[in-house]
Design brief:
The structure holds 2 protein chains of 2 kinds.
Chain A lengths: L18 H21 L4 E17 L2 E19 L2 E7 L4 H15 L33 H18 L3 E20 L4 E19 L2 E11 L8 H13 L10 E7 L1 H15 L1 H5 L20 E3 L22 E5 L2 E2 L6 H7 L13 E3 L6 H8 L2 E8 L9 E12 L2 E14 H6 L1 E4 L9 E2 L3 E9 L2
Parallel strand pairs in A: 7-12, 11-16
Antiparallel strand pairs in A: 1-2, 1-4, 2-3, 4-5, 5-6, 7-17, 8-9, 8-11, 9-10, 12-13, 13-14, 14-17, 15-17
Chain B lengths: L1 H8 L7 H11 L6 E17 L2 E19 L2 E7 L4 H12 L14 E2 L17 H18 L3 E19 L3 E20 L2 E11 L3 H4 L2 H19 L6 E8 L6 H8 L4 H5 L20 E4 L20 E6 L2 E2 L6 H7 L7 E2 L8 E2 L3 E4 L6 H6 L3 E13 L5 E13 L2 E6 L2 E6 H4 L3 E4 L4 E2 L4 E5 L2 E9 L2 E9 L3
Parallel strand pairs in B: 4-6, 8-15, 14-22
Antiparallel strand pairs in B: 1-2, 1-5, 2-3, 5-6, 6-7, 8-23, 9-10, 9-14, 10-11, 12-13, 15-16, 16-17, 16-18, 18-23, 19-23, 20-22, 21-22
Helix pairs in contact in B: 2-3, 4-6
The chains are: A alpha+beta, B alpha+beta.
């Protein structure tokens, strides 16, 4: 069953074309919630309100697969009373629903227990200078534009190689979101951003079987998206180059993580350095602050004030001012990643990381991916990992992987159905080199990373 | 169930059956040959104990309606997080934009779907008062800490969910369901010298809170979490290589979910991108293997009286005596493939589109005693607990991650080994099943399946299995 020449009627104006009034409405909701919390006996309270509107079109084999229009609003509130807390959330921003949510939170706080580490962040830490990081780039792109672009991306990919004979589709989306965080210290902070995405998933086939791979891009402005040809072609190239993949036997070899997967390694570092893992004693980085975690040439810095980076913000999820600061300095763990709660639990100060890190950047090396391959000589390049085999308590790491076998410093053949295993602490200390090919589209930006030795296993 | 759902979802908004028919008529016609509305009201409550105190509690309400217009295999989808006529009409207009502007059609007259209820409609949030729940968490904490002095951290969480859904579709479907879902989890950290390990256990389902809060339930979870952490404190490095693997009963059935289940979901077959596509009727497993997806089990976490498209759930045989016999379908993919929906159309919420999804997926028991299976292995691994898994449905490669495992040497259990990833190929892993145990168990009710960014509760199960060749991703 197919359908042809569908025409989309909706759309026409930019999503949320009156941002100011939407933000004013959210601020009003936040104010009402805080006021009602006080009326209900809360000592202090904090509230987050958000509103978003997204459109996405997916085209598969030239036909429209899905067109989606999504509007979301939501509010979540936490109240504190006698050092005990209660939280509630709802998607209904009407006064009645808001009051009910507040009352639910207050009722819960009657039963939770006093927590000396609980409460709002300290008032003197609230951000006072809230900057604009150039994240709002509305456009009047309509659903028909999204569909046309998805068609172009997919057809560029399908045309790339005759072995690409099937598709899971190409998608193009536009998404706008605004939000307000406020608390009873009097802090009110708002944020807004636009986001445009495109992706393509293609399937290649030969006598060895089928392989699927994808490419994507994600930008704050529509005109900054990668070219349609690029996204389609890269998805096709990536699927084709996996054809004929095979397993390899067990041995210990150097492993080069490509930028698609090296980011994951640094996210594990962040997970283990996060306050929640530390105060629960569930981290392999316990008591490691100030100690060598990487070789001395490694620097990793958080830069929350970069213009044009979607996660940039002057304040964190509890209103605390953010600032640029190293996480790893010359290989040493310079600090942990803390919000107020975990900081109090650990007897430390918040690092402005409630809600996570913002623009964490691994300082790239000077050598290209090809030069790192030459350095590696014989071993494995990993381009995809599978499964949840990362234990942050111990650092033990065991994942499914696919990628390429390397002989004489060159890609020899594609590899799949193997595992790679080691321990993150040893993998980090055993880092041999970082490439110049840093991945800039993500919140955690990391280049290719070469690890001296891991155990691989296969058939 | 339909009456309760109607009362909770439509009456507050002053909507009647006539209004729904008006919206459906607006939705279908021209290229749009099927439309549906999915109303949902979900309340959830959660309590968490950590460091010996119940430090947080949360209550949330999600309420809204999803509107879908299907034109062949194309879908227009929109949703609204308020339930009223203007929101419905706007969402219907957006969803209908899938089709060229055309005349409105007329939907079939709706009639109620009949299906026997698989669980009671009672709201578990109201089944006990907050003070009782908080006391329970503290009791569990004290009990877990009393089990061994090496236990240094205990986290206990209790969550209760109650949702009403109502589906009305232009094919005449009118169905409602009221679904309870409860879950209790215990996680511990144990320390000895400079080693630290975690253990966790939990369970739940669509049953009365009083069963989960009974002493024998929570004591079992606490004991199991502590036991696992202590076992892992002694664990040695896992082997690396291709070897025989014996999987314990119950939760290790995550193997079936990843290796077989996802590859038999109808959307991947319609698109021809599953490694199992075009293999219906072929042998994909040894003759010992019969695998079913069964949404009709009473009160299980993965069970559904009706699915999220109003189709009654069913017991679908996926593999019978080693041959591929069935797929899991939702309406869109079933229509495109010319088959009937199988009761597997599921969605995370009104804000997500239905997809073919699993319910409770398990393998039928065989004839061997588990001890006999272990004794038959000279050199291999016995894995009894897992974190979860993942699959690439196109290449067929899947992983699942052991969190408790032992070496088998000369038919005897050896030392505990550290957690490791197991990797294999879905289309041939079951052709290596050499022995099937007589000890079928279903998991305790903790599974969440993710697909296209949507999470839904599922169950898995299996008897003890011997697989003659899987890659074990250790370091030795």
């Amino acid at each position: 069953m197919t359908q042809s020449q569908s025409v989309i009627r909706s759309g026409g104006t930019a999503l949320m074309d009156d941002r100011e009034s939407e933000l004013a409405m959210l601020e009003d909701v936040a104010g009402q919630a805080l006021q009602h919390a006080r009326t209900c006996g809360a000592d202090s309270a904090e509230v987050s309100v958000s509103s978003g509107h997204a459109r996405e079109a997916t085209v598969r084999l030239g036909e429209i697969d899905v067109v989606e229009d999504a509007r979301d609003r939501g509010v979540s509130i936490t109240i504190y009373r006698d050092r005990a807390s209660g939280s509630a959330s709802t998607a209904d921003l009407s006064r009645g629903a808001l009051n009910e949510a507040v009352e639910r939170a207050v009722a819960i706080a009657r039963h939770t227990q006093a927590d000396p580490a609980g409460g709002l962040a300290d008032p003197e830490r609230m951000a006072s200078n809230i900057q604009d990081f150039d994240l709002w780039h509305p456009s009047d792109v309509e659903m028909t534009d999204l569909i046309d672009r998805a068609r172009e991306i997919e057809s560029a990919g399908l045309a790339f190689d005759p072995k690409v004979d099937n598709s899971e589709g190409a998608s193009v989306s536009v998404d706008v979101a605004v939000g307000v965080y406020a608390n009873t210290h009097g802090f009110v902070g708002s944020s807004s951003r636009t986001r445009y995405g495109q992706s393509c998933v293609l399937v290649a086939r030969d006598e060895s079987g089928m392989q699927r791979d994808y490419d994507w891009d994600d930008r704050i402005a529509f005109d900054r998206l990668a070219g349609v040809e690029d996204t389609g072609r890269r998805a096709a190239e990536r699927a084709v180059r996996r054809l004929g993949a095979r397993s390899v036997g067990a041995e210990k070899v150097p492993v080069l993580f490509s930028p698609e997967v090296s980011c994951g390694l640094i996210q594990h570092l962040v997970g283990a350095a996060s306050g929640g893992s530390l105060y629960r004693r569930a981290s392999f980085l316990l008591d490691q602050q100030g100690k060598d975690v990487f070789p001395d040439w490694v620097d990793i810095v958080e830069e929350p004030h970069r213009a044009g980076c979607p996660r940039s913000s002057s304040f964190d999820a509890e209103g605390v001012a953010t600032s640029s600061s190293p996480l790893i300095r010359e290989g040493r763990l310079d600090r942990y990643v803390l919000g107020s709660y975990s900081a109090r639990k650990l007897g430390m100060d918040t690092t402005g990381n409630a809600g996570g890190v913002r623009n964490l950047i691994f300082r790239p090396g000077s050598r290209s991916f090809g030069e790192l391959l030459a350095d590696l000589q014989r071993g494995l390049v990993v381009t995809e990992v599978m499964g949840q085999g990362v234990n942050l308590v111990t650092g033990d790491y065991s994942r499914g992987a696919s990628g390429f076998w390397v002989e004489n410093g060159e890609l020899a053949f594609p590899v799949e159905e193997i595992t790679i295993a080691g321990n993150l602490r040893e993998m980090f200390l055993g880092l041999k080199a970082a490439g110049s090919d840093i991945e800039t589209r993500r919140n955690v930006q990391v280049p290719s990373l070469l690890i001296d030795r891991m155990t691989i296993a296969g058939q | 169930m339909l009456d309760i759902a109607t009362r909770s979802l439509l009456e507050p908004a002053g909507l009647g059956q006539g209004d729904l028919e008006t919206v459906l008529n607006r939705l279908v016609g021209g290229a749009v040959d099927l439309g549906d509305l999915y109303f949902q009201n979900r309340q959830s409550e959660g309590w968490v104990l950590e460091d010996g105190i119940v430090k947080s509690g949360n209550f949330s309400i999600d309420r809204g309606v999803g509107v879908r217009a299907m034109a062949g295999t194309g879908t227009g989808f929109a949703y609204a997080d308020s339930i009223d006529m203007p929101a419905l009409l706007q969402a219907a207009g957006n969803a209908r934009s899938i089709a060229r502007s055309g005349k409105s059609g007329s939907a079939a007259v709706v009639r109620p779907v009949e299906a026997p209820a698989l669980y009671a409609a009672d709201n578990p949030i109201q089944a006990a008062d907050s003070a009782t729940k908080v006391d329970l968490l503290r009791t569990i904490d004290a009990y877990a800490r009393s089990l061994d002095p090496r236990v240094t951290q205990v986290t206990v969480s209790l969550s209760c969910e109650h949702e009403s859904i109502l589906v009305v579709a232009s094919d005449g479907t009118l169905a409602g369901d009221v679904r309870p879902l409860i879950r209790l989890d215990v996680r511990v950290i144990a320390e000895q010298g400079d080693r630290r390990e975690s253990g966790n256990a939990g369970g739940g389902g669509r049953y009365a809170l009083s069963i989960l809060t009974a002493r024998e339930s929570w004591q079992g979870f606490a004991e199991e979490a502590v036991r696992q952490a202590l076992v892992n404190l002694e664990a040695v490095d896992a082997p690396a290589g291709f070897m025989k693997v014996v999987l314990g009963p119950g939760w290790p059935g995550v193997l079936l979910h990843e290796a077989i289940g996802h590859g038999l979901e109808g959307d991947f077959h319609r698109k021809g991108i599953s490694a199992f596509a075009g293999r219906m009727g072929e042998r994909v497993a040894t003759e010992h293997c019969t695998v079913v997806d069964d949404g009709t089990l009473s009160e299980r976490r993965g069970s559904l009286t009706i699915d999220d498209e109003g189709t009654p759930s069913a017991r679908n045989v996926l593999i019978e005596d080693g041959r591929l016999t069935g797929l899991m379908q939702d309406k869109l993919n079933a229509r495109a493939m010319g088959v009937k929906p199988t009761g597997n159309g599921r969605r995370e919420s009104f804000a997500h589109m239905p997809l073919p999804r699993m319910t409770n997926t398990y393998m039928m028991p065989g004839e061997h005693a588990p001890e006999e299976i272990i004794a038959s292995v000279d050199d291999g691994v016995y894995a009894v607990n897992f974190n979860g898994g993942q699959v690439d449905i196109t290449s067929g490669k899947f992983v699942f991650v052991a969190s408790e495992a032992y070496r088998i040497l000369d038919g005897k259990l050896g030392p505990a080994i550290k957690g490791a990833t197991l990797i294999g190929n879905g289309p041939d892993v079951l052709t290596r099943v050499a022995m099937v145990g007589n000890d079928l168990e279903l998991d305790s009710g903790v599974g969440v399946c993710g697909k296209e960014g949507q999470g839904v509760p599922v169950g898995v199960g299996q008897p003890t299995l011997r697989i003659d060749g899987l890659t074990v991703g250790g370091t030795q």
